[in-house]
Amino acid sequence: HDDPDIRRRVVRGGLHTADELDVERLADVFEEWHVAAADGFTRGEPDDRQLDLPRPSAADPLVSHQAAAPDVIAGGDAAAIKRLYVDLGDDWWRARAGALEEIPVLSAPETHPVVARCLSGAHGLVLDAGCGPNPSLSIALGAEPCRTVVSLDIGWGTVRVARDVAGRRDVSLLGVVGDVEHLPFRAGAFGSVACDDTIEHLPDDERGVAELARVLSPGGRAVLATPNREDLRVVRAKMRDRIRGVHKPSRAYYCSSSHLREYTWDEFEQLARTAFRIRARHPVGW
What we know:
The protein is α/β, with parallel strands linked by helices.
């Protein structure tokens, strides 16, 4: 609510959406669905009708990244998967000029406020592992003078863009380029650790969790967040497909084409327990 750049994009997108949702479009959609239902959905459901919203060009870093990710992930080469994010960072840095207000936040917008609240009492050094090019979590944590935030990402370009974005909001971050699976810090260096929407991208998630625990001081707090494979929207989509007799692989329901995996609550807690003592769950959404 207090970010003018986000507010401006929401207004622009909302006005564009309103122009698209006219009576003619509504009539067309109703007709397609009634015809399909009368036919018993033998040819499947009508295609999703994409709104004619302003879209990024093919040269947009995130578009190129999402197009390349499925093939690289299918290859299973951990080094190539990590290279995807290094290259994405380089692309962010080249594309940054005059467009920092358009750099997206790569975590779910409803998640990072919850993570920030979980660390509201944190003091001293805080690690944001996997900050992304628009480090909204780092900015929220770094706005308080009681904390020094280290914003880490695997891409040098990503870290540089993140520091520039934060600087525009008068927040100073310590940027570090590093791999969550091999963190470049001594044991116990941080009083608090945050890792939001990053673990699902790691080729070796157990190694990543172990590293996050290693750099956390005794008695410190870590907050780990990741998409829920049993999110209500996912369950609804799976039920709809099952009713229609449509069978899709689990990956078809992932939030992003670059996710290596997504977890249920139990799976994520089982992963976390290998290195942490779990104190609480903090659900986002349902």
